[in-house]
């Protein structure tokens, strides 16, 4: 990740009992995003404090390229496949200003 990266964070409330199906679907269709030439990667995280809440972080080379993808037919199809699992959500966008790597980066796991 580098400074200037455009980051998108989604908060998704999943219908209780649909979490495993959501995770499986998300993993199965993720390449729609990661294969886009402007995408730098994405992460799926389950919230620790709220049941059935997930966060998705997606990094992009810049905002215009993300917005181009956001309005594409591929993105609409991607959202359609995830929609049956959602009961709510929100999106936050930001630009990475700086990154300080921790000492555990590169350490054996």
Q: Could you explain how this protein is built, in words?
A:
The protein has 109 residues and is α+β, with helices and mostly antiparallel strands. It has helices at 19-29, 31-34, 63-70, 73-82; strands at 6-14, 39-46, 53-60, 86-95. The chain is globular and about 40 Å long. Residues 6-94 form the ABM domain. One of its GO terms (molecular function) is monooxygenase activity.
Estimate what percentage of residues fall within beta strands. 25-35%
Average pLDDT, to the nearest integer?
93
Helices, by number, come to 4
Radius of gyration: 15 Å
Please tally the β strands and state the result.
4
Total domains: 1
Strand order of the largest sheet: 2-3-1-4
CATH topology type: Alpha-Beta Plaits
Distance between the termini: 20 Å
Which structural class do you get from the secondary structure elements? alpha+beta
Which architecture does the CATH hierarchy give at level 2? 2-Layer Sandwich
CATH C-level class is: Alpha Beta
Helix content: 25-40%
Characterize the largest beta sheet: strand count, sense, and whether it forms a barrel.
Answer: 4 strands, antiparallel
- Which blocks of ≥5 consecutive residues have pLDDT under 50? none
SSE topology string = EHHEEHHE
Domain ABM: 6-94
Keywords: Monooxygenase, Oxidoreductase
GO molecular function: monooxygenase activity
Protein name: Antibiotic biosynthesis monooxygenase
């Amino acid at each position: 990740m580098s400074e200037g990266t455009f980051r998108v964070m989604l908060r998704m409330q999943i219908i209780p009992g649909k979490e495993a199906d959501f995770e499986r679907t998300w993993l199965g269709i993720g390449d729609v995003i990661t294969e886009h030439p402007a995408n730098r990667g994405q992460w799926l995280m389950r919230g620790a404090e709220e049941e059935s809440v997930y966060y998705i972080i997606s990094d992009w080379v810049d905002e215009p390229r993300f917005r181009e993808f956001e309005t594409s037919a591929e993105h609409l199809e991607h959202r359609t496949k995830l929609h049956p699992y959602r009961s709510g959500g929100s999106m936050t966008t930001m630009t990475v200003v700086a990154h300080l790597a921790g000492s555990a980066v590169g350490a054996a796991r």
